[in-house]
Amino acid sequence: MVLVRNNKKDAYYVVTPKTCSCPAATYNPGQPCKHARKYFPQPKVTAPAVDSIKPEGKWPGGHNGPVDEIMGVA
Asked: Reduced to 3 states, what is the DSSP secondary structure of residue 67?
């Protein structure tokens, strides 16, 4: 827990890793405010790079599914 003084220097905000008592945290629930991001940085989560949207898995027989079997594509 951290006490953070506001910019006008007339109040303090209570900041924890999950919540803050500042107005920004109240108006944007579920999102960390600038105080929480500064004093309790979250690890950055990035999605793995995707080169293609084509599925890599194959059905038995090496086909991409029943349509390939009907069309006779190998």
From this structure: helix
30 lies in which domain range? 2-39
Tell me, yes or no, whether 32 lies in a domain: yes
Is 7 within a domain? yes
Residue 29 half-sphere exposure toward CB, CA atoms < 13 A: 0
Which tens digit of pLDDT belongs to each residue from 39-57? 988 877 777 777 777 766 6
Which residue is listed with tokens 């009907």? 70
Number of domains in the chain: 1
Q: What is the 3-state secondary structure (H, E, C) of the chain?
A: CEEEECCCCCCEEEECCCCECCHHHHHCCCCCCHHHHHHCCCCCCCCCCCCCCCCCCCCCCCCCCHHHHHHCCC
